[in-house]
Amino acid sequence: MKNFKNKVIAVTGAASxxxxxxxxxxxxxxxxxxxxxxxxxxxxxxxxxxxxADLLLSKVDxxxxxxxxxxxxxxxxxxxxxxxxxxxxxxxxxxxxxxxxRAQMEWLFNINYWGVINGVEAFLPELLRRPxxxxxxxxxxxxxMSVPSQSAYNAAKxxxxxxxxxxxxxxxxxxxxxxxxxxxxxQTNIANNGxxxxxxxxxAEDREKTAALFNSIAATSPEQAAKKIMxxxxxxxxxxxxxxxxxxxxxxxxxxxxxxxxxxVPVMNIGTRMALKRV
Length: 279
Ligand SMILES: NC(=O)c1ccc[n+]([C@@H]2O[C@H](COP(=O)([O-])OP(=O)(O)OC[C@H]3O[C@@H](n4cnc5c(N)ncnc54)[C@H](O)[C@@H]3O)[C@@H](O)[C@H]2O)c1
Fold this sequence. Notes:
Strand 2 (32-37), helix 2 (40-44) and strand 3 (55-59) form a beta-alpha-beta unit. Helix 3 (65-79) packs parallel to helix 5 and helix 7 packs across helix 10 (260-278). This protein has a single domain, classed as NAD(P)-binding Rossmann-like Domain (Rossmann fold, 3-Layer(aba) Sandwich), CATH 3.40.50.720. The radius of gyration is 18 Å and the shape is globular. By secondary structure, it is an alpha/beta fold. The longest helix has 20 residues, at 151-170. The protein has ten helices and nine strands. 46% of the residues lie in helices and 15% in strands. It is an enzyme of class 1 (oxidoreductase). Belongs to the short-chain dehydrogenases/reductases (SDR) family.
């Protein structure tokens, strides 16, 4: 996708964070945007960007397969076609694997994994009709390496990466490119809205501080993340890493794939203790 002028791009989880910044960036780049989210109140605030004719707002839950299929029909009815989908909606869950209630894990998987699959399956038939089209799936740095208390999030984001890299190969001889995105810490609401059953430090008294701790170490703005994703779409990049933290930690897990945790966990613990003093 060389440029965004008059392209129709669908963005899930558009009411906040990276999704919201993508909507702003895409509209500024000349795209027409179909934005969806479960949070209708914040979704309506996208009208602040002031280009109503180019913006379609829909309340859609990505974990609802039928709703995602209906959304594509709505977009086609409104704009006539669709050229790209950014499967961005996601949630956070912190819990030790040994004590993790299955229902919590399923909640996260239904959004972070099945939400992406629902998006691909709903949009792909329409995208294949376009001369150039793009699927963007948002994984995470935690789709490249694992950390304590994130087993469900890690598993879902690794699964998004595995699925997307295979999908890219399946679509190699078509007009549809597939971009997998691995953000490091981005300053969004994901931790504030997440479910934190255990703390990352293993200490009960730190549980309430999980979101504040995450927020204190997230270094990249959603706007910077959106710019990087849009550049990745324009260059049809297979993988987009966002932030110097993602860049560095990706290198470390490549050098020490079987023991990066022994190296990183003590460093993370020092960083976490320092950050906890600040929050
Ligand atoms: N913030 C980070 O540091 C970070 C790092 C790596 C990956 N990510 C990923 O980036 C994506 C965007 O997250 P963000 O950081 O902007 O978070 P955010 O919480 O600011 O935004 C996520 C949006 O998804 C929406 N959402 C939640 N459940 C939904 C559902 N079932 N259907 C539709 N929408 C739903 C929320 O209402 C929210 O508006 C997620 O996939 C997240 O896992 C974020």
